[in-house]
Amino acid sequence: MSGVKEWATVICLAALSAAMLQSLMPNGPMERMAKFVIGAFILCALIAPISKAVPQIRVGMESENSSAAENDALSSTVDQQLQDAAQQSITTLVRSELKQMGINCKNVQVKMDTKEDGSISINKVIVTVDGKTVPGHAGLSSSLGKKLGIQTEVVSDEG
Q1: What's the pLDDT score for residue 136?
Q2: 24: how many CB neighbours lie within 10 A of its CB?
Q3: Is the Cβ–Cβ distance between 97 and 148 less than 8 Å?
Q4: What is the phi/psi pair of residue 5, to 5°?
């Protein structure tokens, strides 16, 4: 209960000091800025006691709910999502490059590894194209490799 009394006292003192500063403030171009500063001061006086209670609430929540298994599961889920996003991005990029060349892309397979520091290393991109529309795909492989900056292998699907 003493905390509530203390908070009420702080709010009353902040309101009194704000009123006094506002009455002493001259009219002019700085009036709006001074009102803004006084309003921010009042808000800080209102929020200050709550900010003292928040760390206590967080500590209680962490000790009850967190465990190493949950953290590991979350970490592996995030890693998998990052790999999926990287693979989707590369697939979209390869398909758009082939579309600009007028080539029908059937499949894009991305070979990648995750290092211990969390970085993703892209080893190779294997692209399957329609063999009927692309007779010579050796030049296409080097062309895609140069545009993407990734080792690229183009395989034709004859069926």
Answers
A1: 61
A2: 8
A3: yes
A4: -65, -40
Are 155 and 127 in contact by the 8 Å Cβ rule? The answer is: yes
- Using DSSP, how many helices (H) and how many strands (E) does the chain show? 4, 3
Are the C-beta atoms of residues 87 and 114 closer than 8 Å to each other? no
Report whether 94 contacts 105 (CB < 8 A). Answer: yes
SS3 1: coil
Confidence band for 146, pLDDT divided at 50, 70 and 90 = confident
**Helix or strand or coil: residue 103?**
coil
- Averaged pLDDT for residues 94-121: 81
Model confidence over 13-56: pLDDT tens digits? Answer: 888 988 888 888 878 878 888 888 888 888 888 887 777 666 66
100 token code pair: 């600009």
Averaged pLDDT score across all residues of the chain: 78
